[in-house]
Amino acid sequence: MGQDTRVAHDYYELLGVGRDADAAMIKKVFRKKARELHPDVNPSPEAEAEFRSIADAYDVLSDDEKRPIYDRYGEAGLKKNHYEPQYSSFGNVSDIFSALFGEDVFGGGRGAGHGGARGDDALVHVELSFRDAALGAEREVSYQAIGECDTCEGLGAESPEGVSNCVQCAGSGVVRTVARSLFGQVIQESACPRCAGRGKIVTDPCLTCQGSAEQPDRQTLTIKIPAGISDGQRIRLSGRGGIGSGGGPAGNLYVDIAVTADERFLREGDDLITVAD
């Protein structure tokens, strides 16, 4: 009987790609998931742990040497060839993305987040029956939001050679000025006006997005609506709106709930009242 090579983690399943996915698809899917799990968008410990897991998966599936070994022998084969998951115990998640792509998850340099603009919020309306509002439900919603340009993958340029560090802020995205106050000199930080806080200057703009690195994107998402929700309530999904610019965080998705009336029941607070004939 051959050796059992079943693995604890299916890297393809973690990333949500098929085993025939090419390098470009794997990179695109990882970048999208990384944005959703980045601590600037999702600060929960569970999100950080998942981020580290998909980083390990990407590290293997994007490597021409590691991927064939994993495909044939699984994680056991990687360990036998002295390939160990390296991101599970890495410093912080921004350092992981910098190690993988040479940049932070939201683009720009390490300091680009100081002056970045937050992404736009999105709003959808969901109508529920009285029963679904009482018991909870799932709904698939579609909405328009600003996303990363598919052509340049958020780079803003036709190629990596078409982007250079901003000379005014030295790639940090931040400029510092000294102001006088009653308490003495105060150093103020603001987004670099030359690069709009990105830390980069695009010299050869992407033909699709004209250098903005963004494009309108139709998003589809399945949301869980908690039991007992009331008519007129609003649900907030952090980081599910438009992407930020210049290192800024993504906007939020807001879901406005409308509950249809029921012929047999009324609701007063947490109480259900039966309507008698």
Any overview of this molecule?
The structure is a single chain. The protein has 277 residues and is α+β, with helices and mostly antiparallel strands. It is built from six helices and eleven strands. The protein folds into three domains: 11-105, Orthogonal Bundle (Helix Hairpins), CATH 1.10.287; 122-154 and 206-267, HSP40/DNAj peptide-binding domain, CATH 2.60.260.20; 160-202, no CATH class. Helix content is 24%, strand content 26%. The strands form five sheets. Strands 1-9-8 form a three-stranded mixed β-sheet. The radius of gyration is 24 Å and the shape is globular.
User: What class do helices, strands and sheet pairing give?
Assistant: alpha+beta
Q: What is the radius of gyration?
A: 24 Å
Q: What level of helicity do the residues show?
A: 10-25%
Find the CATH superfamily of the largest domain: DnaJ domain
CATH class of the largest domain equals Mainly Alpha
Number of helices: 6
